[in-house]
Every structure is written in structure tokens, then in C-alpha cells.
Design a protein that fits this description.
The chain folds into 2 domains: 3-237, Hsp33 domain, CATH 3.55.30; 243-291, CBS domain Like, CATH 3.90.1280. It contains 10 helices and 12 strands. The chain has helices spanning 23-33, 37-54, 109-113, 142-152, 187-199, 203-208, 213-221, 243-250, 255-263, 283-291, and strands at 3-10, 15-21, 63-70, 76-82, 86-91, 116-123, 130-135, 157-165, 171-181, 227-237, 268-271, 278-281. The strands form 2 sheets. The chain has a 10-stranded mixed β-sheet, with helices on both faces. Helix 1 (23-33) crosses helix 2 (37-54) and helix 9 runs antiparallel to helix 10. The radius of gyration is 21 Å and the shape is globular. The model has no long low-confidence stretch (mean pLDDT 95). Bound molecules: zinc ion. Residues 239, 241, 272, 274-275, 277 line the site of zinc ion.
Length: 293
């Protein structure tokens, strides 16, 4: 089954929503980076969040990045998604692992991340990208994004993100939702939504019962409202790196440095953090780069 992201609005136009099933996409990230269970949960939540926020971009060339800078064992993580459901990311310490909290049967993502910041970067094709930043207060990512929406974008929101993982580390379910209130939403609507959210059990548990993300929106999150589904796109892990793209990086070296590599018959290797591919530039390729400098 293909992963998907969807967005919509209630027929009364007071609540807009996004939802994502990112199970296969997160599995792909886990395989690609050989992630620990803790890293899988963190990166999975970031992937779901970025896919939904990416769908809120205007142009297909725009991109949205969620970046974690923390002082915990995982340290840093970064995920970038675009408007068409393509997402990629990495964590700095993919093997970092914390014991599962036996009482709650959850992964302590907060401790794994530590203290630090969550940065939201929107590259909208302008000279400078939009950047918002909040301190990591909660460490669940979902609550931190909720706080970001309220504090930085002044949009009352509720974000849910979940990754359900098998003991062997494979991804059983991964998904998320965002609901946001439009200006001047009546108190009655807010109360109903709050009641729905308070009653809603764990997202991935409900997905695991066989509910699709549409059904979860209709039957639980927006119960009592009439959600209109406006758009649905496929989601996938995709890195668009290439020899051509990394050439630009090599052009930051001086001509002398490139010439030296040729003379010493050295291969220049560029590593892509997003997909773990190595790009090797030998004599012929370096000569070609030099021609364009
Ligand atoms: Zn790549």
C-alpha cells in the first residue's frame, strides 16, 4: 500500500486538517540509515510532520525542513519534504538507543533529543528562506510543533505524530495529523474539537486496528463535523542527489585544490547524508569541473 498525505477543511470552514500515513516511507529511512529504534521513532515523527507541512506549501519547487539541534544522544536530525510528497532526512547518531520505558511501553524521545531547538525552514524560492525556531520544551515533536504553530504562526493547532515499531525494529505503523483553527472559530466548534481530541486514543494504535487516515479524521478527530477532503498525494522517501548536484559543492574548492587532486591521482568523494550514497570524482570528472570554473 502506498503512503499518502492528505489535506482538507470542514464544510463550515473553521477547521483545516492534514493527515499522513508514512509507514513505508519511514521503513525506507530505517533501512537506508540502519536506524536504532529510538532514532526510527524520532526520524519517523519528523518525516510525518514534514510531509504534512510540506503539503501546505504553495509551489512544487518549495521545500520545508524540520531540524533538531539537541544535546542528547541523538543530537541532531533533519528532514526535508516538498509539495509533492517527497521526503528525505537523517539523524547524526543513527545508532543511539535508549531503553524502552517499561511502564508506558514508549520510547523516550525527549531524553534522546535533549535540550535544544526545533527549527522550521521554508524555502519558498525567495532569496532568504523563512525560518522559525522554538526551544524543544516537550521533546515529543508533536507537542513542539503544536507550540511552534501557536507561538510563531499564531495558528491554534493540534499535532499528533506516531511511530509504532516491532521489537525487531521494523515499522508497523507510522502516521500523523494536524488540525488548525481558522480565525473567528466559534467556541462551540473549539469545544467539540477539544472533546474529540481528548477522547482520541493513540494514533498508531487506531491505525493498527485497520482504520485508514481518512476514517480516523472522519470518525474520531473531526467527529460531528463534515470534513471535505481537498487533496491527496502519494508520499515516498526520495533523494534527488546526483553527480551534477554535488559538482556545485566541489566548485567551492579552489582550482589549485582540484588540480592537486588530479596530479596526485586522488578521487574526491562526496557523501550524501540523505541517502548514504558516495559520489566519486576521478580525474576525468574533475577536469570537466575545472573547465566550467
Ligand atoms: Zn542522496
Amino acid at each position: 500500500m502506498k503512503d499518502k498525505v492528505l489535506r482538507g477543511i470542514t464544510d463550515n470552514k473553521f477547521i483545516r486538517f492534514f493527515a499522513v500515513n508514512s509507514t513505508a516511507t519511514v521503513q525506507e529511512a530505517v533501512d537506508l540509515h540502519n536506524l536504532s529504534i529510538t532514532s526510527s521513532v524520532l526520524l519517523g515523527r519528523l518525516i510525518s510532520g514534514a510531509l504534512m507541512m510540506g503539503m501546505d506549501l504553495k509551489s512544487t519547487n518549495d521545500s520545508l525542513t524540520l531540524k533538531i539541534d539537541g544535546d542528547g544522544p541523538i543530537g541532531k536530525a533533519l528532514v526535508t519534504a516538498n509539495r509533492v510528497g517527497e521526503v528525505k532526512g537523517y539523524v547524526n547518531n543513527p545508532q543511539a538507543e535508549l531503553p524502552i520505558n517499561k511502564d508506558t511501553n514508549t520510547i523516550d524521545v525527549k531524553t534522546a533529543v535533549g535540550n535544544g531547538t526545533l527549527t522550521i525552514i521554508k524555502d519558498l524560492g525567495m532569496k532568504n528562506p523563512y525560518m522559525g525556531q522554538v526551544e524543544i520544551k516537550y521533546g515529543t515533536i508533536a507537542k513542539d510543533l503544536t507550540y511552534y504553530f501557536v507561538a510563531s504562526e499564531q495558528v491554534p493547532s493540534s499535532v499528533g505524530l506516531g511511530v509504532l515499531i516491532e521489537p525487531d525494529g521494523s515499522i508497523r505503523q507510522s502516521g500523523g495529523f494536524i488540525v488548525q483553527l481558522m480565525p473567528d472559530t466559534p467556541e462551540k466548534v473549539i469545544t467539540q474539537l477539544e472533546t474529540n481530541l481528548a477522547k482520541f486514543p493513540n494514533l498508531t494504535d487506531v491505525m493498527d486496528m485497520g482504520f485508514s487516515i481518512e476514517k480516523i479524521i472522519k470518525k474520531f478527530i473531526l467527529k460531528g463535523f463534515k470534513p471535505e477532503f481537498l487533496e491527496e498525494i502519494n508520499a515516498e522517501y526520495k533523494c534527488s542527489c546526483s553527480y551534477k548536484k554535488f559538482e556545485n559543492g566541489l566548485k567551492l574548492l579552489s582550482k589549485a585544490e582540484l588540480q592537486e587532486a588530479i596530479e596526485k591521482d586522488e578521487e574526491l568523494v562526496v557523501h550524501c547524508h540523505f541517502c548514504n550514497k558516495d559520489y566519486k570524482y576521478g580525474k576525468t570528472k574533475i577536469e570537466k569541473i575545472l573547465e566550467t570554473m
